[in-house]
Amino acid sequence: MADQAIFDKKNILVVGGAGFVGSHLCDELVKEAKVICLDNFLTGSESNITHLHQNSSFEFINHDINTSIELETRPELRDFKIEFQGIQEIYFLATPGSPKFYSDYSVETMMVNSLGLNNALQMALKYKAKLIYASSPAVYGDIEDGQRVKEDYVGSVDQLGPRAIYSEAKRFGETLVNNYRLKFDLDTKIVRIFNCYGPNMKLEDGRMIPELIKSALNNRDLVVFGQAEDIGSYLYISDLIQALVGTMNGSESGPINLASDAKYKFSEIADKIIELTESRSVITYHDRESIMAPQFLADITLAKESLGWFPITLLDQGLKNTIDYLSAQKGILQPK
Question: Which candidate in 140, 166, 180, 234 is catalytic?
Answer without folding.
Answer: 166
